[in-house]
Specification:
The protein is an alpha/beta fold and 205 residues long. The protein is built from nine helices and five strands; from the N terminus they run βαβαβαβαβααααα.
Length: 205
């Protein structure tokens, strides 16, 4: 199997999928999107034993590991150890590297997946700075005030917010929680109210 790569950051899942496609042939849909479970480790073993025949190596994608239960993380670790000599290639991903159990991190090569152009504003103005400052302090009233003030160009505001966040707090747990919530919004789906909901949900308010 070799040493698995652990992709982490705002674009981790997409990078893991792209890497897996280059590495070999996918033998299943990504495992764990709905929450990694202990049973998923048994599925990985089954896939390794019945991966079919082909010119390319069999590959599975597993994540997000930072949201796996401790039991699921331990089961995955045992699976990685048991499949050391198996042909199956396992590609791992997480939004937040700090949320992955240390024993899996020590057995993986971590690769940071930075924001792409969707997350970068052509400018960072005082509103983006103010929104990030309020969000970091968990000042919900101030967050809502800034979002309301800039509701007509809320997407540019969120792009600026993400740029400030990526620079100042790339590895904080709340940053990992907000990335997947904001992705669809920056792809053009939603409103300033959806953005407010995403920010507050990431803070677990």
């Amino acid at each position: 199997m070799g040493t698995p790569i652990l992709f982490h950051g705002p674009l981790a899942r997409g990078e893991a999928v792209a890497h897996a496609a280059q590495l070999g042939r996918l033998v299943s849909e990504p495992i764990g999107d709905d929450g990694l479970k202990v049973a998923d480790s048994r599925l990985i073993v089954t896939l390794s034993e019945d991966a079919g025949v082909g010119d390319k190596l069999p590959v599975v994608i597993v994540g997000p590991l930072d949201r796996a239960t401790p039991e699921a993380g331990d089961a995955l670790l045992k699976t990685l150890e048991d499949l050391t000599d198996a042909p199956l290639q396992i590609v791992l991903w997480a939004d937040y590297l700090g949320g992955v159990i240390g024993t899996i991190r020590s057995r993986s090569l971590d690769r940071w997946c930075p924001p792409d152009e969707r997350w970068v504003s052509p400018f960072v103005d005082q509103y983006a700075e103010a929104l990030f400052s309020a969000w970091e302090k968990q000042d919900t009233a101030a967050c809502l005030s800034v979002l309301y003030e800039r509701k007509k160009d809320w997407q540019a505001l969120m792009q600026g917010f993400c740029e400030v966040m990526a620079e100042r707090a790339p590895e904080k747990p709340q940053t990992a929680r907000v990335w997947p919530l904001l992705r669809p919004l920056l792809d053009g789906k939603g409103s300033h109210l959806n953005a407010a909901t995403a920010l507050l949900e990431a803070l677990e308010v």
